């Protein structure tokens, strides 16, 4: 069991499922502790020079507390060590306090060369254990440690690592080659068996290239923590059964937007923790070169075409940074704003009790005592940026009313980089018909929602929306393409869907015949296009129009509204059929290839399922959504939660320029409630290509900051997470409601 190998200069990167923190001793030893008389040097691992030997092994120690061990689970402990004089090193995993029950012990021999030690063991105990290297009584050598990791060994049992809702389906997947059903047991935290049964054999799961079984323990409804499943010697990560998960997640998911605000200092108490505070980014303070007076890009694009620039500057401050980068893109802003406002409009339809969850004072943001619902305050921060991207009527230019596609750095900045440290020139990139229609749609939505809350803002939004619509008619062929350095492309060549979405929102808000004609002429009229398996994404937005027409009272006839609702329900049923055909309960079937941001495709489909639940009053849609969340929270082939802070092994190292602790410990880690883009079969970034070549679709993911094509985080992925979490919270708290058809 003791396998030894000699390491070179650089050891392995820290595994993200490591139960030991800071196993590479980056930036000091915290949260490790020491005892005894020693000096510490962390230039290369942790080197401890013992000044006074002591007599017992535990008189001098390097240790770490709070290591969550699970009885019955198997682990691998690894570390590298060396000593200036040969010594025998007591390594102990034990109870933190009397009687120091031992959970694992080894006594390897150290010498002057770095050696890696690997130990496998099965824990007989569940405890928050202490790991300690006991170096007392060994004389006064210098002993060094590095690359310390403790990982639970591969288990084929994949569960929602956070919690299952008590009254909903509870299904786990098991990757196992057996062709016959296997026995499973559900254990509670006291290690007693509370339920047992037989798996059903699902068979080959194409997207993961695995042979899968299903474990259904839905009948067990007792609230508690620390449950786990066992099949033979394999054991799952622990999980809870409780109602509160989504009450927390809905606000954590919304907090993403505050954290990523541009143009305002992120401060306590709103930041949740000191580590996430930072000065305002891009308010025209050096070294920033934006965003209060930004002019148009001039120069040559990637294809050699020259752009003349423009003779005006716009104030495009505020807004949310798109993602791991500091670009702000109107097109991606569009779907993100729509999703959060749709969440609000759904609550409006459900009534006062639902609206209360987003009321003033409900969220931890600076505007939470201004008399306006906090969800709207958050969205307004970005809406104002979008309005700022519209070419004003007074500008001495053509294309007034058109909207710039994006504002971003002239060149990609490196990582890490806090927004206020960004030294790059920022430019407006050419206006596009797509961005203009995105503003028309969301500003129309804005106008009806702020009506009665802030008349001036509602008016401003309506004027902007109608100006945008007119400008798009005047310039229908301004196509955005991915040709500029320094920012995401968000290129889109087919705009029928944007036209339909904008017309639908304008029609709902104004009731005007112009927009009625536009939607009636559209190929998307009253339909939901789910070709490719997904309902919508930033470049495919027709469904947004139909979902608004189905949800929000408007002048369509009852029959037409029934038609569009039937389309929503049919699409939802298609996603549920995909879910039932999946070995991991995924309500999204893109075929063999999983797209960039696949987790958001799943979440967006669940919005459609949620609205189908509202229109039918049928709670089975919520149950299906709950199972879809199980996939994101750990019931997946990688056995990990894609949502930070939720689950034993969860998103830790997103591609984000500020949450960059993985590459520099002076930067913060990731706040809870952030969803990663997830499996992406095309693995476009070099890190993923090196790690994942040949991956099965559902395994094309790596939790590393360099993997921008699988592990980035963005506004358009966290917004459906917030929507879905709030939806499930309604059901978890028993608020099932049928939304009857209302006509104006
Ligand atoms: O960081 C960028 C990320 O936000 C984008 O999604 C991605 C794809 O457009 O490209 C960026 O990643 C760049 C990285 O930060 C720096 N090296 C070049 C990468 C690709 O352009
Ligand atoms: O989400 C976008 C995805 O659909 C595209 O395939 C990809 C490449 O163009 O870009 C993604 O968007 C990124 C944007 O270009 C820059 N900021 C980060 C976004 C998420 O990775």
Automatic annotation (TrEMBL):
Top-level EC class as recorded in UniProt? hydrolase
Pfam families linked = CBM_4_9, CelD_N, Glyco_hydro_9
The keyword Calcium belongs to this UniProt entry's keyword annotation: no
The EC code for this enzyme is: 3.2.1.4
The UniProt entry, under Gene3D superfamilies, shows: 1.50.10.10, Galactose-binding domain-like, Immunoglobulins
Tell me the ranges covered by the Glycoside hydrolase family domain, including all copies.
246-724
Active site, renumbered: 655, 703, 712
Which intervals hold domain Cellulase Ig-like? 156-236
For this UniProt entry, the molecular function terms from Gene Ontology, in alphabetical order, are: cellulase activity
According to UniProt, the reaction catalysed is: Endohydrolysis of (1->4)-beta-D-glucosidic linkages in cellulose, lichenin and cereal beta-D-glucans
SUPFAM superfamilies in alphabetical order: E set domains, Galactose-binding domain-like, Six-hairpin glycosidases
All copies of domain CBM-cenC, residue ranges? 17-135
Keywords, A to Z, come to: Carbohydrate metabolism, Cellulose degradation, Glycosidase, Hydrolase, Polysaccharide degradation
Q: Can you tell me which family this protein belongs to?
A: Belongs to the glycosyl hydrolase 9 (cellulase E) family.
Q: What name does this protein carry?
A: Endoglucanase
What taxonomic lineage is listed for the species of origin? Bacteria, Bacillati, Chloroflexota, Chloroflexia, Herpetosiphonales
């Amino acid at each position: 069991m003791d396998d030894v190998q000699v390491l070179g200069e650089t050891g392995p990167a820290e595994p993200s499922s490591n139960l030991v923190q800071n196993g590479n001793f980056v930036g000091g030893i915290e949260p490790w502790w020491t005892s005894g008389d020693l000096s510490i040097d962390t230039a290369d691992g942790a080197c401890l020079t013992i000044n006074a030997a002591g007599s017992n092994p535990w008189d001098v120690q390097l240790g770490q507390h709070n290591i969550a061990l699970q009885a019955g689970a198997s682990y691998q402990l690894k570390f590298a060590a060396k000593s200036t004089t040969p010594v025998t090193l007591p390594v102990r995993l034990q109870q933190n306090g009397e009687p120091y029950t031992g959970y694992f012990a080894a006594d390897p021999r150290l010498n002057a060369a770095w050696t890696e030690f690997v130990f496998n063991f099965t824990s007989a105990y569940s405890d928050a254990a202490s790991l300690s290297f006991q170096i007392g009584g060994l004389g006064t050598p210098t002993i060094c440690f590095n690359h310390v990791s403790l990982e639970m060994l591969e288990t084929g049992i994949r569960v929602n690592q956070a919690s299952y809702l008590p009254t909903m389906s509870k299904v786990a997947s098991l990757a196992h080659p057996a062709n016959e059903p296997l026995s499973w047991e559900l254990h509670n935290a006291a290690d007693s068996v509370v339920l047992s049964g037989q798996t059903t054999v699902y068979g080959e799961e194409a997207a993961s290239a695995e042979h899968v079984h299903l474990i259904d323990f839905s009948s067990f409804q007792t609230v508690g923590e620390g449950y786990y499943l066992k099949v033979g010697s394999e054991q799952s990560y622990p999980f809870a059964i409780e109602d509160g998960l989504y009450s927390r997640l809905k606000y954590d998911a919304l907090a993403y937007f505050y954290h990523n605000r541009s143009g305002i200092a992120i401060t306590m108490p709103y930041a949740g923790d000191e580590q996430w505070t930072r000065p305002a980014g891009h308010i025209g303070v050096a070294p920033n070169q934006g965003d209060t007076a930004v002019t148009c890009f001039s120069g040559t694009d990637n294809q050699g075409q020259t752009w003349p620039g423009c003779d005006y500057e716009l104030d495009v401050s505020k807004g949310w940074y798109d993602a791991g980068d500091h670009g702000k893109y109107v097109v991606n802003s569009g779907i993100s704003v729509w999703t959060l406002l749709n969440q609000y409009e759904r609550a409006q339809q459900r009534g006062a009790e639902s609206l209360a969850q987003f009321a003033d004072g409900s969220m931890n943001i600076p505007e939470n005592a201004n008399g306006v619902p906090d969800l709207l305050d958050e969205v307004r921060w970005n809406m104002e940026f979008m309005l700022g991207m519209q070419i004003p009527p007074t500008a001495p230019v053509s294309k007034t009313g058109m909207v710039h596609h994006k504002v971003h750095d002239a060149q990609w900045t490196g990582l890490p980089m806090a927004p206020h440290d960004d030294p790059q020139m920022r430019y407006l990139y050419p206006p596009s018909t797509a961005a203009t229609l995105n503003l028309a749609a969301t500003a129309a939505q804005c106008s009806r929602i702020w009506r009665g809350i802030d008349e001036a803002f509602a008016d401003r939004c309506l004027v902007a929306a109608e100006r945008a619509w007119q400008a798009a008619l005047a310039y229908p062929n301004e196509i955005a393409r991915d040709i500029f350095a320094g920012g995401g492309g968000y290129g889109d060549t087919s705009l029928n869907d944007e036209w339909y979405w904008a017309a639908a929102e304008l029609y709902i808000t104004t009731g005007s015949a112009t927009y009625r004609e536009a939607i009636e002429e559209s190929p998307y009229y009253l339909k939901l296009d789910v070709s490719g398996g997904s309902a919508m994404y930033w470049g495919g937005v027709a469904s947004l129009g139909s979902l608004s027409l189905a949800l929000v009272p408007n002048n369509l006839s009852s029959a037409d509204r029934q038609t569009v609702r039937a389309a929503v329900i049919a699409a939802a049923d298609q996603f549920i059929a995909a879910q039932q055909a999946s070995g991991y309960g995924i309500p999204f079937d893109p075929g063999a290839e999983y797209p960039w941001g696949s987790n958001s495709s799943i979440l967006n489909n669940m919005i459609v399922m949620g609205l189908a639940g509202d229109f039918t009053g049928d709670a089975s849609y919520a149950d299906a959504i709950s199972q879809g969340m199980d996939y994101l929270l750990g019931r997946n082939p990688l056995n990990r939660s894609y949502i930070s802070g939720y689950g034993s092994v969860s998103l830790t190292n997103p591609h984000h320029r500020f949450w960059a602790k993985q590459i520099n410990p002076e930067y913060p880690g990731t706040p809870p409630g952030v969803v990663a883009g997830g499996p992406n079969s095309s693995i476009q970034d070099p890190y993923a290509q090196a790690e994942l070549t040949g991956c099965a679709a559902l395994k094309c993911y790596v939790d590393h900051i360099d993997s921008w094509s699988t592990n980035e985080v963005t506004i358009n992925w966290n917004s459906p997470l917030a929507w879905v979490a709030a939806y499930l919270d309604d059901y978890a708290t028993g608020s099932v409601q049928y939304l009857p058809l209302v006509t104006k």
